[in-house]
Amino acid sequence: MPAITLPDGSVRRFDAPVAGTTVAEAIGPGLARAALAMKLDGRLVDLATVIDRDASVVFVTRRDPDALALIRHDAAHVLAEAVQALYPGTQVTIGPAIENGFYYDFARNEPFTPEDFPAIEAKMREIVAANAPFARQVWDRDAAIDFFEERGERFKAELIRDLPAHETITLYTQGAWIDLCRGPHMRTTGDVGSAFKLMKVAGAYWRGDHRNPMLSRIYGTAWRDQKELDAYLTMLDEAERRDHRRIGKDMGLFHLQEEAPGSVFWHPKGWRLYRAAEAYLRRRLDAAGYQEVRTPQLVDRALWEASGHWEKFREHMFIARVEDEDRVLALKPMNCPCHVQIFRQGVRSYRELPLRMAEFGSCHRYEPSGALHGIMRVRAFTQDDAHIFCTEAQIAPETVRFVELLASVYRDFGFAEFRVKFSDRPAVRAGDDATWDRAEAALREACATAGVEYDLNPGEGAFYGPKLEFVLRDAIGRDWQCGTLQVDFVLPERLDAEFVAEDGARRRPVMLHRAILGSFERFLGIVIEQYAGRFPLWLAPVQAVVATIVSDADAYAEEVAAALRAAGLAVTVDTGREKINAKIRDHSLAHVPVILVVGRREAEARTVALRRLGGEAQEVLPLAEALARLAAEATPPDLRETAMAAA
RNA sequence: GCCGACGUAGCUCAGUGGUAGAGCAACUGAUUCGUAAUCAGUAGGUCGUCAGUUCAAUCCUGACCGUCGGCACCA
Questions:
Q1: Residue A183: its pLDDT value, please?
Q2: Which of A104, A196, A363, A420 could potentially form a cystine with A222 if both were Cys, beta carbons 3.0 to 4.6 Å apart?
C-alpha cells in the first residue's frame, strides 16, 4: 500500500505497487504527458519504475533543469545507435552526459571525422523521430557478458566484468537497439528533441588511462529547446571572439614562435599590461606583510633530490650542463626549495613567524607538447608565489588573511565570483598518514574559521599536502582555477627547516604554499578574455590617444599628450592625414579606452573632446579638468582611496 | 606524450602537378575633411623544415617542427 508524497506535501495512496507513469496519470493528463522521469526519494529514476513502498516523488518535466542531464544522456544513446547503424563493426563503450552536452567513445579502426557528422546527425534525427520507447531490462551478469562477447562488444563485456558483484546489471532497449546502461532514461527517443548538434571528434583513452587503447570520441551538445541551443552556440562564438591568442595578436600584446615553444615574447603593449598587474600585486603583497625575494634560476639537482621533486618530476624539468663541470643543474620548476634555503640562513625564532616570503618566481617546466595553449599553458612562466613559514596554530589565521587578500585582488581585476575546492591526499604521496591527518584537519579548521565553503575534490592534493584551489568565474560564465593554498608539513622536514620555539626547543615550521594569480601568463590570458581586450583604464596598455582633425591642431595635440604623459598616462598621438572618422574607427578597433579629439576649436579654447570606447557621446572639457579626471580614473584600484583623499 | 586536423603576404583566407592571388594592414602621392572606413598608386611570399616520387612539387608520399581540438599530464 505505497503512500506517495508529492512536492506540494499532498499524499496519494495506492492499493498495490504502482508505476510512476500511473501515478502521473492519476494526478492529471497534463503531467502524464509532460513527465520524462521522476525523482524517487531524491534519486532520479525511470518514469516506469514501480513504487512498492512509501516514498516521495517529484516528476521531472522538460522545464526542470534536471531534464538537461536526461536529454544529454539519451542523446548519447541515440548517437551510439546511429553510429552502429551507419558504421557496422564499431564497438560502443561509454557515453555520459557532461557539462553542456554529451559524448560517446567508440572503438573503430578508422577514427571519425567531422565530415561524418551530417550523416550521423541525420540518422540521429531519424531515431528521434521514430520515438522508440526506452525499456529497462535486468540481466544475469554472466548472460550479459556472453551476450556482449558474442556481439563482439569486448569493451562492454569488460565493463560488466568490472562492476561490483552486488550491482544489478541493467540493459536498455530503444527500439531494436540495446545497450548496457545504468539509466535512468526518458520515455522514448523522441524526448531527446531536436536541439542537439554534433560538435567535434577527439581521441580519448579507454577508461582515461594513457596505457590503454585510444578510442574515437564524438562530442555533441544538447538542450531542452532550440533557443537554449542557440544561446550556447552564441556563447561559443563569443568565447572565440575573446580568445586571448587572437586579441594578443590583434592588439600587438605578445607573440609566440616555433623557436621558443611555450615561451611568450611580450611586446611593448603587452608588457605594459604585465607591469601594471605586477606593480599592483607587489603593492598588495607589501601591504599584506610579505617580504619579496629573488632566487636562482639554475639549481643543482641535489636540492631537487632533497626536496623530492627530482624523483617525481625529473622528466618535466629542463636540465642544464656545462662542459667543464661534472654537475647537473635544473632550471627551477618552482620556488619553494629556494625559499627554504633563505629561511635556513641563520637561526630563526618563533618571533619571526609567520614569515611570508614572496617571489615573482620565473619557472620553467617541460610541459607535454599537447598541453601547450597560447599563453595560458606555457613552459616558461612567472608565478605570484609565496611561502608562509608558520606554526600549526597560525595556519588558520594565515588562511583567513590569505583568502581576504585573494578575494580583494580578484575583485580589483574584475572577478566578483569565485569558489573553492578542497583537494585531499592523493594516492601517491610523501609523508605518513598521521601527518596528512593533521594537515587536512588544520586546513579544514582554517576554512571553518575563514568562513570558506568548499567542494571536496578527493585525491587531488599535491604530493606533499592538501590544498585549497580557488576557481574564478569570468564574464561569460567560464571557470578558471587560479589561486591555491597548500599546507605542507613535508618539505620543511626534507629540507631541514627549523625555528627556535618559545620553550627554546627546535621545531619544524609548517609551509603554506600560496598563489593568487597562479601565473602571470595564464592570469593575463584570462584577463584579456574577461575584458575581450577592452581593459579598464588602469590596465589598458594604451590608455588614451589624442587624435587631430586638422594639421593646425598638431602642436596642441602634442602638448595635450605631453601633459597626460606627465600625469602618468600611456598616450599616443595620431596626427595622420586620415579623416577623424577613420581615426575613431581605427582606435576603437584597437580598444583604446579614451580618444581625445582636438581640432581648431579645442586648440583655441584649450579644451579636449573626450570620447569613451564603445560610447557615442563626447564631452568637451578644459584640458586641466580632463587631465585630473583621467589621472584619477587611471589610478590602480588599490591606490584609489588615497588618491581621492589627497585630492 | 597519444588521436585527429591544420601550416600560402603583417592579419584573415582563396588556389593549382608546369615556381601564386584577394581583402585588410603597410608604404607613396593627392585630399585639411568635426566623432566607427577619402581616393589613387606601389611594394610585399625559397607556399613550416628536410627528404623522396616526378621531366617538373606549394600541390603527391614520408619524417620532423609548430599550431589547433580533445585525451593524458599539471609540483
A1: 87
A2: A196
CB atoms within 10 A of CB A601: 12
Cβ < 7 Å from strand B, A residues 608-647: 609, 611, 613-614, 616, 618, 620
ipTM for this prediction: 0.95
Longest dimension (CA), chain A: 95
Protein-to-nucleotide distance from the CA of A258 to the C1' of B54, whole angstroms: 32
Alpha-helical (H) ranges within A347-500 are 395-412, 433-450, 490-494
pLDDT value at residue A321: 86
- Is A345 an active-site residue? no
Question: What digits encode the pLDDT tens for the residues A414-459?
Answer: 999 999 999 999 988 888 899 899 889 989 998 998 889 999 999 9
Interval A71-83 mean pLDDT: 97
Pick the catalytic residue from A174, A383, A486, A530: A383
According to the model, what pLDDT value does residue A324 have?
A: 82
Q: CATH assignment of A3-60?
A: 3.10.20.30
Q: What is the spatial distance, in angstroms and rounded to an integer, between the CA atom of A556 and the C1' atom of B38?
A: 24
Nucleotide nearest to A591 (CA to C1'): B36
Is residue A146 part of the annotated active site? The answer reads no
Q: Could you please report the per-residue DSSP string of A370-406?
A: GG-BTTTB-SEEEEEEEEEEE-GGGHHHHHHHHHHHH
For chain A, the domains span 3-60, 65-238, 266-296+332-530, 544-646
Residue A643 has pLDDT above 80, yes or no: no
The verdict on whether A338 is a catalytic residue reads no
Single out the catalytic residue among A39, A187, A191, A336: A336
Question: CATH top-level class for A544-646?
Answer: alpha beta
Catalytic residue among A123, A185, A377, A467: A467
Task: Respond yes or no: is residue A543 known to be catalytic.
Answer: no
User: DSSP secondary-structure letter at A188?
Assistant: B
Decide: A550 and A603 in contact? Cβ < 8 Å.
Answer: no
Chain A 426-485, CB < 7 Å to strand B: 462-463
Taking the CA of residue A586 and the C1' sugar atom of nucleotide B37, their distance in angstroms comes to 9
pLDDT above 70 (res A646): no
pTM: 0.94
Superfamily of chain region A266-296+332-530: Bira Bifunctional Protein; Domain 2 (3.30.930.10)
> Quick one: pLDDT band at residue A642, thresholds 50, 70, 90?
low
